[in-house]
Structures are given as structure tokens and as C-alpha cells.
Fold this protein.
Amino acid sequence: MANYSVSVSEVFHALADPTRCAIVSSLGYGAQTVTALAAPFDMALPSFMKHLTVLERSGLIRTSKLGRTRTCELVPETLSRAEKWIAGQRAMWEARSDRMVEFVERLHQQEQPHVTKRRRKD
Amino acid sequence: MANYSVSVSEVFHALADPTRCAIVSSLGYGAQTVTALAAPFDMALPSFMKHLTVLERSGLIRTSKLGRTRTCELVPETLSRAEKWIAGQRAMWEARSDRMVEFVERLHQQEQPHVTKRRRKD
């Protein structure tokens, strides 16, 4: 299996939690300090920080510290990579479905004379 | 938090494993029996079946049984839903970035006369 898949599955792991999905959504509006980001969540700060660590390890967010203030921001390239992976799988499935439809239509066209012959026999 | 996010995070949970990502990729080529699908994986069948259960619960695949043969197929609509969620987050971030660029440019234009005045003073 390609390393690419392993890496993408890490991004999906980071998104496999409603809290982390909500953090990503919140950061879509712009960079925020950890305090501001954590405020709407009914959660102890250490638990919240664990979610941030998972997100940062996956590459979905980056954090920076200025004095005592840590700020988080989204890394859209990582979101884009996960999006492309999913789009790729769907495209593969759709291309195969299109080929299937073409195949069945061709088969149907080839079978038409045969069906007519049978009807004549009846 | 919207139920929609909870549901999407379940799809990401299903994709949060390299084996399950590989199963999804393999099903992109078309429906397969469990035996054929499991063949390339160096894994005991019960472990493989657990992965299929996770994928089926998330709605990413559906399975059907004919006699003793179980067949798996991809559900592209679920892939599409996850893809749209990610695209939505990215679009929000990009729209905000565009607004930031516009804001900075406007600010820069407004400051230009001020800078000119200062230069004149110098």
C-alpha cells in the first residue's frame, strides 16, 4: 500500500471525531487563540489540547506561540489532500459505472437482432 | 453541533485506517465478493470482516448475500458527502483569506496618501 494512503488515513483519523470536526469548522473563519477556540466547548482544557495535538500531528492545523498565547490556524493544503483522495475514489467508481453502462448498451444493441429472430420463430 | 457533522465524522472514522482506505480504493473498480476483496490482504478473515462492518455502518459500502456469497459495493453518495464537507471547510477558509487580502489591499490604498505626506515631510 502506498504511503500516501497511510498518510491520508491519518488525516481522516483526525477528522473522525465530532469535536475535531467542529474545531476545523471554527478555524475556517480564521486563526484563533486556544482560549477563544476552546470557549464554546464544554470540555476541560487538557482534553481540548489533546484534540489539538491530534489535529496538529495530522497536518490539518498548525499552532504558533507568542509569549503565553498559542494561536491555531487551519492548513487548507491538508484538507485539499483528503478531498482529492475522496474525489479520486469517487471518480474511479464513476468511470467504471460509465464503462458498465456503455458495455450494457452495446450488449443490448448486439442482442436486438437475436431477439427479433426469436420473435419471428414464435 | 449539527448531527450532520457527527455523521460525517463517522465516515471519517471509517476511513481512518489504511486497510479500510485500501478496501474503498479496491471497490472503486467495482463490486467484489468478500473472498476476492480479502485476497490481497495479509489478514485473518474475522479481522477483515470487522473492517467491512465499520465501512458498512458508516454507509461507505453496502453488502448483499446470494446463497453463501456476500458481495460488497461502494456507496459513492457517502464518499460525496464527506468530500463536500471537506470542500465546504476549505471554501470557508478561502473566502475568509480572500476577504483578508481585500481588506489589506484597501488598507494599503488608504494609507498610501499618508505615506506620501510623510515622505513630503521628510
